[in-house]
């Protein structure tokens, strides 16, 4: 059991209805981009709830899919679908001090890499940061500078059609960590500095003159921070995901923020 949310949605089930960013939550500290996929999401853009005037366009037809545990996820087919993210995401990654949090899963039979997030350089050097699931077997945090370097975790623990919560942390060019389901799974002290990043996306990666669509998969609740998250914070994002969601109710035609009267306990997913 996890403790009740601070001002956010305090229940185990996904929020329903309108919501806004819960700035009271410690989960909001250093948050520079938040792409929730939640009931009511529709259309061909993914909205950033931190920068409300920014929406990330779809390429072709990524599909909204509803899930009992994580609300709605965004499915891309691994063939020609992606979502392009804003340039400010690249700026944060280019600083090499950031964290990326998301939920991800792949369907059975995928024999390549599904990229839930990528920030890459579209020339032959192929430098990039990315988070991927490989063949429903390994979860990987890539950070390619002069050579391909990564932190990987998985094996029998990774299964298809299962949601995993991933936090990739870059505290410095020689200090990186990977958390899966709130637990530290690996670290790296290898010094590498991806540079020239100019493409950020969900569902694909750009490492040359063309986009690579490797495998199908789903992503939910992508968050990007301009600071390194610690172990306790990674666990909190996993166990108290809905804390960042502040419900909005409508009273006499006016939308108002509200906190549910009953402070129920959030269950682990």
Please provide a written account of the structure.
45% of the residues are buried. The protein has two helices and 21 strands. The chain is mainly beta and 269 residues long. The longest helix is centred in the last third of the chain and has 9 residues, at 231-239. The protein starts with 18 loop residues before the first strand and ends in a 12-residue tail after the last strand. A hairpin with a 2-residue loop joins β13 (164-172) and β14 (175-180).
**SS element count, helices:** 2
The SSE order reads EEEEEEEHEEEEEEEEEEEEHEE
Q: Major beta sheet, specifics?
A: 8 strands, antiparallel
The amount of helix comes to under 10%
Number of β-strand runs: 21
Unreliable stretches: 250-269
Structural class: mainly beta
Sheet-strand content, in percent, reads 35-45%
Compute the CA-based radius of gyration. 18 Å
- How confident overall, as mean pLDDT? 86
Distance between the termini: 10 Å
Shape: globular
What order do the helices and strands come in, and which of them pair?
Layout: E1 19-21, E2 31-35, E3 45-47, E4 55-59, E5 63-67, E6 71-76, E7 82-84, H1 87-94, E8 98-105, E9 113-120, E10 128-134, E11 138-144, E12 150-154, E13 164-172, E14 175-180, E15 183-188, E16 199-202, E17 205-206, E18 211-212, E19 217-225, H2 231-239, E20 245-251, E21 254-257
Antiparallel strand pairs: 1-20, 2-19, 3-4, 4-7, 5-6, 6-19, 7-16, 8-13, 8-19, 9-10, 9-16, 10-11, 11-12, 13-14, 14-15, 17-18, 20-21
